[in-house]
Amino acid sequence: MRDYAEWARGLADLVVGFGANVQAGQILGVTTYVGKEQVAREIARAAYARGARYVDVVTFDNWVKRERLLGAPEDSLDFIPPWMLDRLRWLAAEHGARIALSGPQAPAALRGIAPERMGRDLLPYLPEVGRVVNERVTNWCTIPAPTADWAEIVYPGLRRDEALERLWQAVAHICRLDADDPAQAWRDRMATVRASADRITQRRFDAMRLHGPGTDLTVGLFRSSIWHAAEFVTVDGIEHFPNIPSEETFTTPDPERVDGYVSATLPLELYGSVIRGIRVEFEGGRAVRIDADENAEALRSACAKDDGGTRLGEIALVDGAGRIGPLGTVFYDTLIDENAASHIALGSGYDLAVEDEADKARVNRSQIHIDFMVGSPALRVDGITHAGEHVPVLRDGAWAI
């Protein structure tokens, strides 16, 4: 077994030097959770080695969040301390770098909490993140950091130490730490994903139809929608890769042209609560019904934060050639699970995936951005041309275009 310290160091080097691409002289803001200190400290080491001016680490604890959800007044649960927003705004104004560590910190912390209360407090997610991303003023990346508590829910049949080792092995594999040069391995993978994105963009489809068990959804596109791999460039020309891992090609849909119904194929971990069996119906672009087998009210409450919360901001397609889907594992971490299967997102959309300024003005705006997974080998995806022709795009988890 490799030493966890070696894996932590490898993750940090990858996210600092490649994912967020931290530059000399930059301020780096890190958002993490209790239990992920080893990776956070390695990130500080790697950032200072690249010449970062200062590394600021904010650590959240879901056991503290539990006390808020249990005892705070109902009308206070949407409150966000202004200094949290000021930190993000300052990093944006400074053109700093941002890194977030993902993965459940304390899966048991929010058990027994009323779902409608959980959906109102989405911290550490901040509502201004979407604006900062669209302004392209920070180079940023999110990467998973394993903990023993997280490992126990992914591998419940193993002893705690065995589960943690297994999770570290899986994270190292899907983040390509086992490659001789992980950064180059990601560049190669991104080139493949980008080629698929370019092929879809060239067809200039009017809409995408997703159909399979429990799903028949038509998602309208802008005339200037373009498909991307997860590789961004800031206004200062800093290339960065916002998600590690990432196997998706995505675009921003027309939020007023979504109709049909869709069923989730994987559970959604939403800032401490796990939502299973999601089913959503859309009419005229809006989610008119949101149901789930478990914790549906948490999702409904989150989507009710503003008018854009019940409209789509993203559609992402994932083929079966990546490293996550073939594992057949539910990780209870959206960063990983969304790259195992095609997905859609309720809430804020990405300006960078739309070329025309008039179309950009119509991109969905919201305080939230909630991805949930709808893909499987049984899901068929068609592109619909402006003439009404249906063109196969994904079949049996493989590109058909």
TrEMBL record:
Keywords from UniProt, A to Z, are:
Aminopeptidase, Hydrolase, Metal-binding, Metalloprotease, Protease
- Carries keyword Metal-binding? yes
Q: Which Pfam families match?
A: Peptidase_M29 (PF02073)
Cofactor names: Mg(2+); Zn(2+); Co(2+)
- Give the source's domain of life in one word: Bacteria
Single GO biological process annotation from the record: proteolysis
Q: State any single GO MF term.
A: metallopeptidase activity
Question: Which family does this protein fall into?
Answer: Belongs to the peptidase M29 family.
Q: What is this protein called?
A: Leucyl aminopeptidase (Aminopeptidase T)
User: Organism source for this protein?
Assistant: Gaiella occulta
